[in-house]
Amino acid sequence: MREYIPCLDNVEAISKLKSTERGEKFERHCPEKGKGLNCLVPPPRGYRAPITWPKSRDEVWFSNVPHARLAEDKGGQNWILIDKDKFKFPGGGTQFIHGADQYLDQIEKMLPEIAFGRHVRVALDIGCGVASFGAYLLSRNVLTLSVAPKDVHENQIQFALERGVPAMVAAIATHRLLYPSQAFELIHCSRCRINWTRDDGILLLEVNRLLRAGGYFVWAAQPVYKHEAALEEQWEEMVNLTTRLCWNLVKKEGYIAIWQKPLNNSCYLSREEGTQPPLCDPHDDPDDVWYVDLKACITRLPEEGYGANITTWPSRLQYPPDRLQSIQVDSYLSRKELFNAESKFWKEIIESYVRAWHWKKLKLRNVMDMRAGFGGFAAAMIENQLDCWVLNVVSVSGKNTLPVIFDRGLLGVMHDWCEPFDTYPRTYDLLHANGLFSIEQKRCNMSTIMLEMDRILRPGGRAYIRDSVAVMDELQDIGKAMGWHVTVRDTSEGPHASYKILTGDKHLLRA
């Protein structure tokens, strides 16, 4: 129970699956209503306050993630070592034994146009190990979301989050990943144990959906460089598929191959009639991802060039992107005015938090904005030079603003707060919820959301809930019942405002 992820550890539902050959058992299977967790998840014995960033990139306490298996399996590959009461991360990987920094230098040398931290700002690492690829890209101003299933090396994402590296438990199996189309400038897979060409290339077609127009797919794997018959056949199949996807093999050197996705639909439309895979139906929404099956078709790029023509980092953080125009809004204000107003609002709020509540001293690292809007809160954290990363959660019950969040150079994910979130317990230092409960109380039980917040919050972590006065009393009661130290404050608008701020500090509970 100490590492319980409700929708991934539902043994009853997994045992009833008709098939598991496509990775179905690694996907979400949430407990039925009334069968969910209704208690607090205790920490492991000996749990202690996590080592703070940036030191945590290289070492974490053994007692916080007490699992030696990964170190035993992968110790010789320079991934992870046990040293007394700590795990240490030398920065290596199966395919980059000499360290992630040298590997990143090699990629950039192969293709200088990648320009980490300027052209490439948001990346995805599939089958990420302990996330050293993403950990070392952070110093190059690249936000990498590291994803892996909860599988045989089941704690790799737990290690990544304990290190303070952006990561999620996610499997590329039968459903779309919970990110929008054209989310990532670069997608990386190093020995990620995925057969990209199976089922008419359906898994690589999902990568294609997620990859920004003109973006790069970096594959480091044995078929790239080994000359055994079976591996050569895999390479030929990969070249054949990527050619039909109109990807351009821009560089192949040693064990690394780099493809580039086209900037528009012209190549797709000029393919010979009957070429597989086909283009997706024009009415298919590539940003519709919540429990949506994978589709064996090529996602069309917007004719207006939306998503392809973003500006470079860091200016893209505050620049209203083109895809803002495609978001449905109920407002007499223009989308650009809404975007700018949200950015200004959160900039002022975070400045006041830093000034009055000394947020810089809190040593926040893993942060979640549970109702992110256009990502203004996360942008303000960067503007105020808080050394953290923010996962922006967009609820299925609201407008899908995820394309805008990624176009700003931020990370985000789709979620329904009536269900548990796919992360390990004790993985976030700060949970920020603005107006979440007053909206979701019509759909979900507020105590269910609060219990989930407690599960994913680290002991010593903090929740900031900014919401209407109407829900504050109940939230205060739930927080106290969970053992949080709860305080309710007025907003800057004063004691008669319709909103209040609840701060909940989670203490270390022993089972």
Overview of the structural elements:
- With 511 residues, the protein is an alpha/beta fold.
- It has two domains: 91-269, Rossmann fold (3-Layer(aba) Sandwich); 315-505, Vaccinia Virus protein VP39 (Rossmann fold, 3-Layer(aba) Sandwich), CATH 3.40.50.150.
- The chain has helices at 11-15, 69-74, 100-110, 132-137, 156-163, 198-210, 222-225, 229-244, 266-269, 335-357, 376-383, 402-407, 436-440, 446-456, 469-481, and strands spanning 59-61, 81-83, 86-88, 122-126, 143-148, 167-169, 184-190, 211-220, 248-253, 256-260, 366-369, 389-395, 411-415, 428-434, 457-468, 485-490, 499-505.
- It has a seven-stranded mixed beta sheet, with helices on both faces.
- Pfam families: Methyltransf_29.
- One of its GO terms (molecular function) is methyltransferase activity.
- This is Methyltransferase.
Topology:
Elements: H1 11-15, E1 59-61, H2 69-74, E2 81-83, E3 86-88, H3 100-110, E4 122-126, H4 132-137, E5 143-148, H5 156-163, E6 167-169, E7 184-190, H6 198-210, E8 211-220, H7 222-225, H8 229-244, E9 248-253, E10 256-260, H9 266-269, H10 335-357, E11 366-369, H11 376-383, E12 389-395, H12 402-407, E13 411-415, E14 428-434, H13 436-440, H14 446-456, E15 457-468, H15 469-481, E16 485-490, E17 499-505
Parallel strand pairs: 4-5, 4-7, 5-6, 7-8, 11-12, 11-14, 12-13, 14-15
Antiparallel strand pairs: 1-3, 2-3, 8-10, 9-10, 15-17, 16-17
Helix pairs in contact: 10-11
Sheet with the most strands, sense and barrel status: 7 strands, mixed
In the predicted model, the low-confidence regions spanning at least 5 consecutive residues are none
Q: Report mean pLDDT, rounded to a whole number.
A: 93
> Please, how many domains?
2
Which class do the helix and strand fractions yield? alpha/beta
Large-scale geometry: globular
**From the alpha-carbon coordinates, what is the Rg to the nearest angstrom?**
22 Å
The level 1 CATH classification of the largest domain is Alpha Beta
End-to-end gap: 11 Å
Per DSSP, the total helix count is 15
Percent range of helical residues:
25-40%
Spatial sequence of strands, sheet with the most strands: 6-5-4-7-8-10-9
The CATH architecture category of the largest domain equals 3-Layer(aba) Sandwich
